[in-house]
Amino acid sequence: GQQVMQIPQYQHVQEGEDFTTYCNSSTTLSNIQWYKQRPGGHPVFLIQLVKSGEVKKQKRLTFQFGEAKKNSSLHITATQTTDVGTYFCAGHNTNAGKSTFGDGTTLTVKP
Amino acid sequence: NAGVTQTPKFRVLKTGQSMTLLCAQDMNHEYMYWYRQDPGMGLRLIHYSVGEGTTAKGEVPDGYNVSRLKKQNFLLGLESAAPSQTSVYFCASRRGRNTEAFFGQGTRLTVV
């Protein structure tokens, strides 16, 4: 079945440093979604990427979808303490009614 | 709109007991999901439904059953709870196949 790998599992940064998490799928995806889960909270949708090579930005967050639609990345510029949490990618295959989530990258930010 | 509501929020069960987790959504979404989240293992899909009256198995369905008798509700049942089912359970719903998922607040279940 479809597998989605996400690295790194944990990332500790000093406030102001950049952060990147990577997501790789074993199969070609129809789209990929990113979610953020604050400690003790539930996953919240951030963005969806659909097109090959697509790049989207949300303030300090930059999301990319690979040309082959098998990988994606989330980059945060100049992290802030409000960025702490676990970031999940979710790969979606149109033929199935479900997504496969990566194991997430947990970001901690030291003030 | 309440979005996705899970009940209960916390529960402690003894091994062998049964219980039902309720997920309710008021967004008229077709697709509903049950996940479990364990430390370091992300979200694993237990069962899902693509519409009222339908259910399908996910990655880790053993020990669980589900029902979707009404479009707005998705029930997750544990017939005979085991300590390995100690986890945080999340329900989610989507309007369509390629749309964003909305998650409930989660149910923290401990089986002793």
Helix and strand topology:
The complex is a heterodimer of chains A (111) and B (112).
Chain A: E1 4-7, E2 10-14, E3 19-25, E4 31-37, E5 44-49, E6 55-58, E7 61-65, E8 71-76, E9 85-92, E10 99-101, E11 105-110
Chain B: E1 4-7, E2 10-13, E3 19-25, E4 31-37, E5 43-49, E6 56-57, E7 64-67, E8 73-78, E9 87-94, E10 102-103, E11 107-111
Parallel strand pairs in B: 2-11
Antiparallel strand pairs in B: 1-3, 3-8, 4-5, 4-9, 5-6, 7-8, 9-10, 9-11
Class inferred from helices and paired strands of chain A: mainly beta
- Name the assembly state: heterodimer
In terms of DSSP E residues, the strand content of chain B is over 45%
- Sheet with the most strands, sense and barrel status of chain B: 7 strands, mixed
Low-confidence stretches of chain A: none
What's this, in brief?
The complex is a heterodimer of chains A (111) and B (112). Chain A is an all-beta fold.
Q: Please, could you describe this protein's structure?
A:
The complex is a heterodimer of chains A (111) and B (112). Chain A is an all-beta fold. Helix content of chain A is 0%, strand content 55%. Chain A has no helices and eleven strands. Chain A has strands spanning 4-7, 10-14, 19-25, 31-37, 44-49, 55-58, 61-65, 71-76, 85-92, 99-101, 105-110. In chain A, a hairpin with a 6-residue loop joins strand 9 (85-92) and strand 10. By secondary structure, chain B is mainly β. In chain B, 0% of the residues lie in helices and 50% in strands. Chain B contains no helices and eleven strands. Chain B has strands at residues 4-7, 10-13, 19-25, 31-37, 43-49, 56-57, 64-67, 73-78, 87-94, 102-103, 107-111. In chain B, strands 2, 4, 5, 6, 9, 10 and 11 form a seven-stranded mixed beta sheet that branches. A four-stranded antiparallel beta sheet of chain B has the order 1-3-8-7, with no helix packed on it. In chain B, strand 7 and strand 8 form a beta hairpin. Chain B is globular. The model of chain B has no long low-confidence stretch (mean pLDDT 95). Classes of the chains: A mainly beta (111), B mainly beta (112). Chains A and B meet through strand 4, strand 5, strand 9 and strand 10 of A and strand 4, strand 5 and strand 10 of B.
